[in-house]
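Dear colleague,

Following up on Tuesday's group meeting, I ran the structure prediction for the two-component complex that the binding team flagged. I've pasted the input sequences exactly as they went in, so you can double-check that nothing got truncated or mislabelled along the way. The structure tokens for the whole assembly follow below. Feel free to forward this to whoever is handling the docking comparison.

Inputs:
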Amino acid sequence: GAGVSQSPRYKVAKRGQDVALRCDPISGHVSLFWYQQALGQGPEFLTYFQNEAQLDKSGLPSDRFFAERPEGSVSTLKIQRTQQEDSAVYLCASSLARATDTQYFGPGTRLTVL
Amino acid sequence: AQTVTQSQPEMSVQEAETVTLSCTYDTSESDYYLFWYKQPPSRQMILVIRQEAYKQQNATENRFSVNFQKAAKSFSLKISDSQLGDAAMYFCAYRSPSNDYKLSFGAGTTVTVRA
């Protein structure tokens, strides 16, 4: 594909529901990142993958957040038992090599927890 | 952790004129990377310009240029000949070579362009 794609673009969940957000990085990109962007704020780092290995998950806000990239391509960010404070835009980015290259962002998934 | 500060929540500019967005950062490192990203209402974050701290020359990309003042830890973005399509939120971001994947973003500046 031409760029990073994310699905769904919008997600509304009731508090307590589990959600799964998908990211398709640019083909061939080794590094993949997830960021959380609260309304009117800059993105905050969540986690980083190099191929299928999750090298840093220090930004995940709680153990309700889980990310995976089992085959080193598509990644899924899962949030269990969603809370209202989880409402945000979740951005995925990928880069070509060891993350020293430019990060290319997807359009994001806007999650609203009611 | 690095802190990136954008002190201007909003800026307005007349079409064809110039606007400068400010960014300061806090770091103890001597080598690092700085970025300006543009996020239009569609929300796709796009890289505008990047600067390596070891380079003294200010980066330029067409109508976009930076004023990098390393000693002052300042990294401002100048948009010349502003166009309606420049309207967006602009984020300043920092990346450390010792932690070379995380981007630390400022809170952003919303730029509106008046026709």
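The interface with chain B takes residues 3, 31, 33, 35, 40-45, 48, 55-56, 59, 89, 91, 93, 95, 98-100, 102-108, 110 of chain A (CB under 8 Å).

Cheers,
M.
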